[in-house]
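Worked example 4.2. Below are the chains of a multi-component assembly; read each line carefully before continuing.
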Amino acid sequence: MKTQKKLVDSMTFQTKGIYDLFIDSCKKNGNNTAIFINKNTYTYNQFLGIISGIKKQVSQLPTHKKSIGILTDEHINTYASMWTCIGTGRPFVPISNKQPTERIKAIIDNAEIDILLYAEESELIRKLKLKSNNKVVFICTKNIVSDLHDLSSVRVNTNQILYLMYTSGTTGKPKGVPITHNNLLSLIENHQKSEYKIIEEDRVIQMFELTFDFSILPTIFSLLVGASIFVVPKNNTTFIEVYKILVTHKITIAYLVPSVINHLKPYFNQIHLPDVRWSFFCGEALYKEVILNWLKCTPNGKAINAYGPTEATVYMTHYIVNEESCEAYNGIISIGKPLNNMGIVILDKNLIEVPRGKKGELCIFGPQISNQYWKDESLSNIAYININHQGHNVTAYRTGDLCYINNNNNYMFAGRIDEQVKVNGYRVELNEIEYFAKQYCSDKLVAAFVKKNSIGMNFISLVIENYQDKNNGLLLFLKEKLSHYQMPEIIYTIEQLPTNSNGKIDRQKLALSSQLIKLY
Amino acid sequence: MNEIILRLTPIMHRIFEDRSIIVTPNITAKDIEKWTSMTNAIFIAEIEQEFGFKFHFRDVMNLKNIGDLISVIEKKIA
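Applying the procedure described above to all two chains together yields the following structure tokens:
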């Protein structure tokens, strides 16, 4: 029999599943605010009622134990749907409604989704229904009535998949990362043992798309301890909405991506957030100059820089930032040390450990690491490797991040070894953009790259060598294939793409080139 | 108001990359495809340069549409 992971709460060791902990939290905090969303407040009791209603509907369907897709509409029932899946022991797959239909269909097929929960009827749903050939049951949760509190949960094998997150792939196919109950229980234990653990009195901001795994901290962890979540309304100018929520709801824990505070930077001298206890950053590089000034805006708070790819279950290293010790490389704050039970090795091209202080690829292992990509053995064999570490055989995930360890045993991020970039916290494979661009203009050389705009922020660009497009055909084609966050902000043409001494396209030269001619 | 609209129009056309935008007081960020956190920051910076003043963050936070923006500019340059 598998041993269930131990989970630590503030008082005692106990062996419980994630949904059991949630039910305990609901019983204890019934009349407290669970979620504030779309100007409405829902108590734990009301939220559990909504979950129970959806659970009842899902339970009436024939059980195939396949995964359940959740379209991430901005609605209380979307959050309730996540908990419904956890409570029924079914893996959930968050799917952004901002993606092209074809991409959503590819995820539905790959994840073997047989139920799709959504909160709002839309043209997208109509198209998906047409494409599903009755293989998927579509359930609109909007009008499901709350039910009597269903406090039961299904016993799950903790090696069972809890959720599948899809990230950008290099060959035009999104890749699924399966995270098990064990993976997340390990993180919960680490997180709730730390000094930045969430407590019942906390007021937590939730600004993320639910397809971004950083959202697991505010949406799942907060509700396990009785804290309240405040959801940022989706708007074109996210950073302003984030600030309004921080101020209006006296947020105490701010889970943020660094680009939000980069946008707030011009106004730091007017920002005062005395209620913030912890600013917790993840998802992209955090710059020393920005974070030290942000700390002045949160005079009673501390900051954490956390690091971890989706494959490592949200985050697996952490670094507490303060003015006295703020280690950085090229201005980027250290990613710190691994969490308890998690391990890191830095390997060279031949997968040999590099000497201390030398740069190499960051490879990670431990109970939070997913051990494969969903139904993609060949990709799994490339990304996951078996290594011997200090006499133990472990399966390590190759992150593709270039790092070194400094004299204080803190890990320092020094760039990527491949063509993956981070934009607003999303991981984007430049190769995937090029893959689709080449599909459209097959006889042309193409390159996706990152440029900086006039305020120093990164954005994705695409260039096609010697190209003319009169009917916006390429732009429309890419919109059908790529997620919103992968779309190039600007598409250029150039007479000849610059190359380096190896004959490869030189993306750094491209970003600075004056020969680029804007197409869109 | 008309003079401010005349000065805002080329800035908006350039930043939001859409020469068909007709600037009216009722336009909001939702009406313009390329109005994002990033282009908003550039837009604000360009207005500050064009009209020669600095926004207070409270002003930026409370902007609901172009009409609100014009009101703030009018007060600042008065």
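Take a moment to check your reading of the output against the notes. Chain B has a mean pLDDT of 91. Helices of chain B lie at 2-15, 37-51, 57-61, 66-77.
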